[in-house]
Design a protein that fits this description.
By secondary structure, this protein is an all-alpha fold. It has 13 helices and no strands. The longest helix is centred in the last third of the chain and has 35 residues.
């Protein structure tokens, strides 16, 4: 119902108002429509090849090679010795992922607070300063740079001055995920309830006490959740950095493809499947512990 002093124009809901979220949705739908038009109409989109019989014939032949059909001798995934050899590489791959997410986690813990705007401008009860403001922009730029460079590029750069192995792959994955987890963790601090930190400040608490009792209890559970989610992604991405001799199953995958040993490729894919399932289950259990 309209109030006594309201006009019909004021009472009508503003359904036609274009908000940022609505404009983003319209933009996304427009880009999706343009993309599908290009795929369906474009001459070089590859759609014709997708429906050609030759493509599916090649796909069927490749699948037969993966399964070891018509191969001389037994396929690699039916040989216990090959399972043991690739199992050692799977262990190195798991080690690479743990090192990578550890590097990223330690780096984020040391830097995500200065990257939060409400820390630099005194929104959590502290006093703003030009130094904290400059540090905020510096750390934010580092976050953007490290996550903008793909893991494969980081690995190619690091392999130039470190010998191929687990460490270059872990550093490459850690650098990329440092930027991702750092940005997410800083935004957790920016969106947290400032009440506890301000109350501690007004009661005379120091910086460390505010950090320990007002900020960390709210930020750390979400930080650990993000870190565990990224670990699930890292274990999948190890195959990418392995292509530049960063060690683990990824390097063996590239070599097997190069020598057309397709049953070995199938065995490596099985190992990756086991690793991903194991890490996903462990990560889900750890996230439940964090929320408890």
């Amino acid at each position: 119902m309209m109030g006594p002093g309201s006009s019909p124009m004021e009472a009508a809901p503003r359904h036609g108002r274009v908000t940022f979220a609505r404009a983003s949705l319209y933009g996304l739908l427009t880009l999706a429509l343009v993309s599908w038009v290009y795929i369906l109409v474009g001459a070089d989109s590859g759609l014709d090849d997708f429906f050609s019989g030759r493509t599916w014939s090649h796909a069927g032949g490749f699948l037969q090679q993966l399964l070891g059909i018509y191969q001389e001798g037994r396929p690699a995934f039916l040989e216990l010795e090959r399972w043991g050899e690739t199992g050692k590489l799977a262990y190195k791959t798991l080690l690479m992922s743990v090192l990578a997410i550890s590097f990223a986690g330690v780096g984020v813990l040391l830097t995500f607070l200065p990257a939060a705007r409400n820390v630099s401008n005194g929104g959590l009860g502290g006093s703003p300063s030009a130094g904290l403001g400059a540090l905020y922009y510096l750390v934010r730029v580092v976050f953007v740079f490290t996550r903008a460079v793909p893991e494969l590029v980081w690995a190619m750069v690091i392999v130039f001055f470190l010998s191929p192995g687990v460490l270059p792959g872990a550093l490459a994955l850690g650098l990329h995920n440092y930027g991702i987890v750092g940005k997410l963790s800083a935004e957790v601090v920016e969106n947290m309830d400032p009440g506890p930190a301000r109350a501690l400040r007004s009661a005379g608490a120091g910086n460390l006490q505010v950090l320990a009792y007002g900020i960390f209890p709210q930020a750390i559970p979400q930080f650990l959740t993000y870190l565990l989610y990224r670990w699930e992604v890292v274990i999948r991405t190890t195959v990418v950095v392995g292509f530049v001799s960063a060690g683990g199953l990824g390097r063996e995958f590239r070599l097997s493809l190069s020598y057309f040993q397709y049953s070995d490729v199938a065995l490596i894919i099985l190992w990756y499947l086991l690793l991903v399932i194991g890490v996903d289950l462990l990560s889900a259990w750890l996230r439940r512990l964090v929320r408890a």
